[in-house]
Specification:
With 592 residues, this protein is of the alpha/beta class. The chain folds into two domains: 22-321, 3-Layer(aba) Sandwich (Aminopeptidase), CATH 3.40.630.10; 357-579, no CATH class. It is built from 22 helices and nine strands. It has helices at residues 2-18, 36-49, 58-72, 129-141, 170-178, 180-183, 214-228, 237-245, 253-258, 287-306, 327-336, 338-354, 360-385, 402-405, 409-426, 438-462, 467-477, 486-496, 498-511, 515-527, 533-553, 571-591; strands spanning 77-87, 91-102, 106-115, 155-162, 185-191, 199-203, 262-269, 317-320, 323-326. A seven-stranded mixed β-sheet has the order 1-2-4-3-5-7-6, with helices on both faces. Strand 1 (77-87) and strand 2 form a beta hairpin. The longest helix is centred in the middle third of the chain and has 26 residues, at 360-385. The chain is globular and about 85 Å long.
Length: 592
C-alpha cells in the first residue's frame, strides 16, 4: 500500500490540477426569434400526416419529401442523401437524409441535426417531431429571404434531417462519414425529444473515448439556464466513465464526436425515463419547454457563429457540475494505478520461483478456462448467425428496439445450454481429484495474477478507460494468496467482481433496462460489431483469470488432470482428434 501511495500520488495531483472551470461564449446581441407556437403546429402536422415514419417505408419517404418542401418554402436550398443500410429489426432498407444549407461568409459549418423517423405509429419511444419542428423553425429564423430576414451568418449553417435516428443513428453516422459539410464542421448540435416537460439534459457520450468541447458544453448549459432559469442535467461521473470505458455513445452526437466534431445532444428527461435520448413522450408536446430549448438552441448557434477564429476541440474530459477534469490526467491516473499491482505480482513470482514451484499445471488450467470463455464468445456470433442475437450495421442499439426488449427466451436458453455442454467437457481435467498442496495453490495464484498483469497492461495501452472495470479486481485479488480463512477469500473475490458488475448496473440504469436485458444489450453490441474484437478478447482474457482465481477462492481448484504427465487431451485436442480419427476411418472405408 505504501508503494501504491508513492506511485499514484503524482498522478492524482496532476488530476486535481487539471480540474478547471470552462469559459462560456458571449451571449448573442439579438434575442432568439424561435416561435414555439409555429413549431408546435409543424410538429402536429408531421405526426398527424405521417404517423409511421419507419425507415425504408413509403411513409418515411413521403415525410422526407414533406420536410424538403417545407424548408424550401422559406427560401433555403436543400439536398438529399440516399443510400442503403442494414439495420437491426429492419434489414436492408433505403434511407434518406435531407440537408438544408444557409450559406455564410465562411466555408466552416455549424450543424444542427434532428432525426425525422420513428419506430412506427404504435412505438412509444423514438419519436422526434419536436426536433424536426425545431429544425423548420430555425430555418425560418435564419432564412435569407424577406424584409425582416436575418443577417448573413459568419459560418455556413447546415440543418440536417436524418433518417434512422430511432434505429441507432444511421443517418447521422452516414452524414458524418460522407458529407463535405461534416468535414468543415466546427460543432454539431443534435435536437432529440426537446418537446417533453421533463428536465433539460445534455448527452455527450461518443463512439470512441472523446468529449465535446468544454466551451460548447458550458455555453449550451448557460443558454439553457438563461431560458429556463435552471441548469441542464449532465451525465453523472459514473455514467461518463462507463461510456468512455466501453466506449458507448447512444444518441446522434456519437458519430460526430467519433470524427473529432464537437457535438452534443439536447433533450429532455422525464422522471423514470432512461438517461439516453429516447425522443418525445406520448403526452402532448410541452410547448413552453419546446420554446425554451428552441430559443436556447438558436442562441447557442448565434454564440458559436460570433466566435470567429475559435476552435472547438474534442479531447476526452470528465464533466461534473460547472467544472471539468482533463481526460489525459484521468487516464494517466488509471494507468499508474496498475504499477503497484504489477510490482506485487512480480514479487510473488520471484518468491514462487525461488521455491521452485511448478507453474506448468497452473498454466494448463488457465489455458483450459480461457478456451472455455473463448467458446462462449464464439457462441455469441453463432447466436447472431442463427437469428437469436441482432445483426446489422455497427451502430449503438437503441435500448427500446425490438431486438433488445423482445429477445427470444428459447434462443437464449439454447445458447446457455450450448455453453453448459462446453463447460461439462472442459471441466473434466479441471475437477480436483485430491486436495492441492499449498505450493500447487500458490502456483495457481501466481499464474492467474501474472496473466491479469498482461491483461491490465494491454488495456492500459489500447483502452485505458477499461481499467475502471479492472482495477477493483487487481487490488482485491492481489490479497487472495495471503488469506487462509475461507470467508475472507470469498469476500475478496466478490469485491473484485464489483468493477464489471457496477459498470453493468450503471449502464442498465442509464438505458432503463433490467439486468438480463442489459446483458443481452451488451451481447448485441458485440454481434453488430459496435464493440470491437480486441475489447471482446480483453474481456475473455479477464474472465479466464477470474475463473481460475474463483476456483482457488472457493476451494474448487485442482491440479490439471490430477497431475498426469503428459496430460490427456483436453476439449480442443479431443475434438480435433475425434474429427481426425473419423476422417481416417472414412478414407479407410472408401479405400477398402
Amino acid at each position: 500500500m505504501r508503494v501504491s501511495g508513492v506511485v499514484a500520488a503524482p498522478a492524482l495531483l496532476a488530476l486535481l490540477f487539471s480540474i478547471s472551470t470552462p469559459g462560456v461564449l458571449a451571449r448573442p446581441q439579438i434575442d432568439p426569434l424561435f416561435d414555439p407556437a409555429s413549431a408546435a403546429i409543424v410538429a402536429g402536422q408531421l405526426s398527424s400526416d405521417f404517423p409511421a415514419r419507419v425507415p425504408g417505408s413509403d411513409e418515411a419517404a413521403a415525410a422526407a419529401q414533406w420536410y424538403e418542401q417545407t424548408v424550401a418554402a422559406v427560401g433555403i436550398r436543400t439536398e438529399t442523401q440516399i443510400w442503403r443500410e442494414d439495420l437491426p429489426d429492419l434489414g436492408d432498407v433505403v434511407l434518406r437524409n435531407v440537408v438544408a444549407v444557409v450559406r455564410g461568409r465562411s466555408e466552416e459549418t455549424i450543424l444542427v441535426v434532428a432525426h425525422r423517423d420513428n419506430m412506427g405509429a404504435g412505438g412509444q419511444l423514438g419519436e422526434n417531431v419536436s426536433g424536426t419542428a425545431a429544425l423548420v423553425e430555425l430555418a425560418r429564423s435564419f432564412s435569407p429571404q424577406g424584409a425582416g430576414s436575418a443577417p448573413v451568418p459568419q459560418r455556413t449553417l447546415v440543418l440536417v434531417s436524418t433518417d434512422a435516428g430511432a434505429f441507432g443513428g444511421a443517418g447521422a453516422a452516414h452524414f458524418a462519414r460522407t458529407s463535405p459539410h461534416a468535414e468543415q464542421a466546427l460543432v454539431a448540435l443534435v435536437l432529440d425529444g426537446i418537446g417533453g416537460s421533463g428536465k433539460p439534459r445534455i448527452t455527450i457520450a461518443a463512439d470512441r473515448p472523446g468529449s465535446p468541447s468544454r466551451a460548447l458544453v458550458s455555453t449550451v448549459a448557460a443558454r439553457i439556464a438563461d431560458q429556463t432559469g435552471a441548469p441542464a442535467e449532465l451525465p453523472s461521473v459514473l455514467e461518463q466513465l462507463v461510456s468512455l470505458g466501453i466506449p458507448l455513445g447512444v444518441g446522434e452526437q456519437a458519430p460526430f464526436l467519433a470524427r473529432g466534431i464537437a457535438a452534443l445532444t439536447l433533450t429532455t428527461r422525464e422522471s423514470g425515463e432512461p438517461s439516453v435520448p429516447v425522443g418525445d413522450p406520448n403526452a402532448p408536446l410541452a410547448q413552453e419547454r419546446l420554446g425554451d430549448l428552441g430559443r436556447a438552441a438558436e442562441a447557442v448557434l448565434s454564440s458559436v457563429d460570433a466566435s470567429v477564429g475559435r476552435s472547438f476541440r474534442t479531447p476526452d474530459s470528465i464533466f461534473f457540475g460547472d467544472r471539468v477534469a482533463s481526460g489525459w490526467a484521468f487516464r494517466l491516473t488509471l494507468v499508474v494505478l496498475v504499477a503497484p499491482f504489477a510490482i506485487g505480482v512480480v514479487d510473488l513470482l520471484a518468491r514462487a520461483r525461488r521455491r521452485k514451484l511448478a507453474f506448468r499445471p497452473a498454466i494448463r488450467a488457465l489455458r483450459g478456462r480461457l478456451l472455455l470463455w473463448s467458446y462462449g464468445a464464439l457462441l455469441l456470433w453463432i447466436g447472431a448467425f442463427v437469428g437469436i442475437l441482432p445483426t446489422g450495421s455497427a451502430l449503438a442499439l437503441p435500448p427500446y428496439s425490438e431486438s433488445v426488449v423482445d429477445h427470444s427466451t428459447a434462443g437464449l436458453l439454447l445458447l446457455v445450454l450450448a455453453f453448459a455442454a462446453g463447460w461439462l467437457l472442459a471441466r473434466r481435467p479441471l475437477v480436483p481429484t485430491f486436495s492441492p498442496s499449498v505450493a500447487e495453490r500458490l502456483g495457481g495464484f501466481a499464474v492467474a495474477l501474472a496473466w491479469l498483469v498482461l491483461v491490465a497492461v494491454a488495456a492500459a495501452v489500447a483502452k485505458p478507460y477499461a481499467l475502471v472495470f479492472l482495477l477493483p479486481s487487481l487490488y482485491a485479488w492481489l490479497w487472495l494468496p495471503l488469506q487462509t480463512w475461507r470467508p475472507a477469500t470469498v469476500a475478496l473475490y466478490g469485491l473484485g467482481l464489483t468493477g464489471p458488475a457496477l459498470g453493468l448496473a450503471v449502464l442498465g440504469n442509464e438505458l432503463g433496462l433490467g439486468p438480463l436485458d442489459t446483458a443481452f444489450y451488451v451481447a448485441g453490441l458485440v454481434t453488430v460489431g459496435y464493440v470491437s474484437v480486441p475489447t471482446v478478447l480483453l474481456a475473455v482474457a479477464w474472465a479466464g483469470a477470474a475463473a481460475q482465481l474463483g476456483a482457488l477462492a472457493l476451494g474448487r481448484y485442482g491440479v490439471y488432470a490430477g497431475g498426469a504427465e503428459p496430460p490427456p487431451p483436453g476439449m480442443v485436442r479431443g475434438i480435433v482428434g475425434a474429427v481426425a480419427r473419423g476422417a481416417r476411418r472414412r478414407r479407410y472405408a472408401r479405400a477398402t
